[in-house]
Amino acid sequence: MNEDGPGRLPLLVIGFGNPLRRDDAAGLVVADRLGAVPRPGWRVLSVPQLVPELAASLAEARTVVFVDAGLPGVADRVRVEAVAPGAAGESLDHAASPRGLLGLCRLAYGRSPDGWLVTVPAEDLGFGEELSGRTIAGIREAVGRIEDLAAGPASGELPRAERCPTPRVQTRLDRSTTAEGTR
Known about the structure:
The protein is of the alpha/beta class. The protein has a single domain, classed as HybD-like (Rossmann fold). It has helices at residues 26-35, 55-59, 98-109, 133-151, 172-180, and strands spanning 9-16, 42-47, 61-69, 79-83, 114-120. It has a five-stranded mixed beta sheet with strand order 2-1-3-5-4. It comes from Aquisphaera giovannonii.
């Protein structure tokens, strides 16, 4: 599990997905929203896919939150689940899974952060950049839940995975409404 040490970053958020496949961009939008506000102790990454090279960033964190779009018809609401490290090398070919990346981090660095996966509901993964209404609402909820997760208990410590509350998120609609000044 997580070993706290000097210089360890409290929270790493990694949003991933494809911005050209409509709702698949949900993880990227959540990361963009969270990264738009400077937050001490946070590092927010927006990447097209999880790759083994991210293990070094995980090794610097106490907690990592992965954010992705769910499969249409499977994820009907925002889900927050603890993620345990997988076996070394699990799902580490072209793109990694959260479990595989945590396992690689543990293998390479002797430790891994507490892991969470936030899944935002998706309805349309076709080509395009527009988000569905369900995904927009899910992004908003996911942003809030991640902020709640980071707030942790009153002690100021990030909660460990086994006792962490479910987090919330936001989307591209929020970005467009902010640009128009109607947020």
